[in-house]
């Protein structure tokens, strides 16, 4: 189970999932008898990555309901046991407490000959304010257990973890709410308890320094008794999203990146129009807590347990077609072996391989269909025109004047998110816009899309994505870090710039430099990026030694392991670039394996949406474990 979490490297992410499952089961076992789980709707997808329905069923969870105001339909059907424990699993959000109170009151009003116990577990941390509100609503006395389920980081794959906290960037950079950074620090302390103290910590940015300080303080409070494991990581980098506002804005050009751009990957699952896929019967193992039977989408798990997806995910999309063709020819050749099987033994060997062959055939059909769906998007004039203007901006062409392309998009009332994404890209690559250019864009947007978007424009300015032109730093960054590469081999790449067909993600160039000559070699450009750069040595507990010196013989022993934590979000393109670097064995500074963690897996659209103000009163976005932002058109 969850085989995709153990990639065979030094860090086994499956251990993290096992601990999260164990903690969840501990919560369930504190609640006796037959159970009804009442879900905060934003937690069903994330918790589905930890525990499948069958596991909950084994632990006496007989009913599940979304959290809504009103009475819970707990009446037992024929042959069903009466519910003894009602468990609320919710985020620590004040607005949810009213729904919980209404649920409890209305359920109790109906009465029952069976005694019911109510329990509440906050994810990821108990909230004093929420408890006080429940007391004010006069339902706290009904609660037998008030606890917390400490699920800060979700295991997405063997080298990837995410908090799926979609408003973390907005909270930290606009609202001065650093709760998520506290969750990050708690998660990192748990990781160090499991995988050993990380000897070297690097960081860049305000939030990175904040997390580092919290870790230092927490370790002083806890002491060394919790950290007895030999270090699995050699180093950790904490990197603020604000240090690289550019990378999320252009269109990602990897297979997984384009899927996320157009088909909304959430909680490791992609949603696709079903027409392209042959009907198939899903096994119970494929179903998870996020399955919606009424959905109009085909839901497909996207992780490295799918062997073909593991090969395709990080490739430039132009390399996907040849790879699918190669796979089809390989399978065809394997099927031809059946004709050459003349003996019983040969036939037995072929039959023994048949289940795996059929699985590979199914995966090939699935990804051929997905690739066709993506190609329908990338073959349009709209896609190519947008890509061209993005490339021009990143090359510094016509960034100081109003773009006629953006002007036309506004005139046609195209997606506001698309318009804002391009304007922000122009602003970031030009170190801000001339006053008359920025004022023109603002005026056109407000007149075309509505004056309620003035708050959104203000948010983008406060985040640094829109601003008046200041000192020119980006040309120096572009040249010194070689961010724009002229010749890119998309089929057999030699550089990370393949993920955007010519642009190397600034964040990953910083990581690449840090793991190579070090940031001291680029001190003159580091000053153009916001926030303090720092380096900390963490003392190992008594009796715990660093990893043995690198050996000559064993390649795995020679590989350094670095945990990279993106504070404010990371794109699939950046993840692909880091995986590319992990595969480079000829590095002059030795190979490095990267484990990636982030507050949220983002793309340019949902990142911009997270900064938008919803014009409809009362529809505030949630601040953690938000699977999907509502699109404002």
Automatic annotation (TrEMBL):
<dbReference type="GO" id="GO:0016192">
    <property type="term" value="P:vesicle-mediated transport"/>
</dbReference>
<feature type="region of interest" description="Disordered">
    <location>
        <begin position="614"/>
        <end position="633"/>
    </location>
</feature>
<dbReference type="InterPro" id="IPR001619">
    <property type="entry name" value="Sec1-like"/>
</dbReference>
<dbReference type="GO" id="GO:0012505">
    <property type="term" value="C:endomembrane system"/>
</dbReference>
<protein>
    <submittedName>
        <fullName>Vacuolar protein sorting-associated protein 33A</fullName>
    </submittedName>
</protein>
<dbReference type="InterPro" id="IPR043154">
    <property type="entry name" value="Sec-1-like_dom1"/>
</dbReference>
<feature type="region of interest" description="Disordered">
    <location>
        <begin position="274"/>
        <end position="295"/>
    </location>
</feature>
<dbReference type="InterPro" id="IPR036045">
    <property type="entry name" value="Sec1-like_sf"/>
</dbReference>
<comment type="similarity">
    <text>Belongs to the STXBP/unc-18/SEC1 family.</text>
</comment>
<keyword id="KW-0472">Membrane</keyword>
<dbReference type="InterPro" id="IPR043155">
    <property type="entry name" value="VPS33_dom3b"/>
</dbReference>
<feature type="compositionally biased region" description="Polar residues">
    <location>
        <begin position="624"/>
        <end position="633"/>
    </location>
</feature>
<dbReference type="Pfam" id="PF00995">
    <property type="entry name" value="Sec1"/>
</dbReference>
<dbReference type="InterPro" id="IPR027482">
    <property type="entry name" value="Sec1-like_dom2"/>
</dbReference>
<dbReference type="InterPro" id="IPR043127">
    <property type="entry name" value="Sec-1-like_dom3a"/>
</dbReference>
